[in-house]
Amino acid sequence: MDVVVAAYLSHARAASPLPHSQFLSFPGEPLNRIIALPAFLGDGFDLAGLKWVASFRANREKGFDRASAVLILNSHQTGRPLAIMEGSIISAKRTAASSALAARCLNDGRQLSHAGFVGWVNFEIARFLLASFPSLSHFYVYDSVAKNSEQFKRKCRELSANVEVTCHAEVDDVLSRGGLISFATTAIKPFVETLENCPQGSTILDVSLRDFTPAAVLSCDNVVDDVDHVCRA
After folding, report:
1. Maximum Cα–Cα distance for the chain, whole Å?
2. Dist. CA 38–CA 160, nearest whole Å
3. What is the per-residue DSSP string for 129-193?
4. Per-residue pLDDT tens over the stretch 19-34
């Protein structure tokens, strides 16, 4: 998380040129995509790189992870590649660290007793939230596929024996709890039309970006790390 903090501060100081991500989609396959994300990070890091990350949802039924990725890092002095690495684990940890950091900043140091999770992709986020908020004692979980919720519950028990996990049948059951709620799904169309059941003052981590209708998004105060970048594909 400290590394992620340093990267965000570098970006705020305009030390990280960040071209727009390029989304590769496939005709007739709305669930599959591969994204190219190039960047340069200066300010003491001084590395260029590219993440080439694929998301194929049906992989889980074939016994593979949904996401796979490759990272390429290049020298700022010569442009030559320094490393080519498997990137899905790094990507998952970075996303989770960013999410937990956002939760920590937006909650202004307050400790939390519970958190909600919508989508089984949230596991790493749950790990980093536990590290950031030791006071967490209850998770409320929803996934459109019930067995995914139960699997998420089992994995969370491996993280901490002190956290109680409750699975719910409807997304509103999680939203109505309020507090801190993380959305990380593989949905391709919005399925949350309103947040009227979510208590005022709640913090929603919108990690997957396709879960809410425009009306639901506009009903919130929205905080992003880069306005221009987040409004792209």
Report:
1. 55
2. 36
3. HHHH-TT--EEEEE-SSHHHHHHHHHHHHHH-TT-EEEE-SSHHHHHTT-SEEEE----SS--B-
4. 999 999 999 998 899 9
Residue whose structure tokens are 């190219």? 36
CB atoms within 10 A of CB 170: 9
Which residues in 112-219 belong to E strands, given as ranges?
Answer: 114-118, 138-142, 164-167, 180-183, 203-206
- Sign, Cα dihedral of 114, 118, 122, 125: negative
| C-alpha distance from residue 232 to each of 20, 30, 85, 227, 229 (Å) | 8, 17, 27, 9, 6
Q: Which two tokens stand for residue 100?
A: 């937990």
- Is the predicted pLDDT of residue 81 greater than 80, yes or no? yes
Collapse the DSSP code of 154 into the 3-class scheme (helix H, G, I; strand E, B; otherwise coil) and give the result: helix
Q: What is the DSSP letter of 16?
A: -
Give residue 57's pLDDT band: very low, low, confident or very high (50, 70, 90): confident
Domains in the chain and their CATH numbers? 2-86 (3.30.1780.10), 92-230 (3.40.50.720)
Which tokens is 88 given? 């899905």
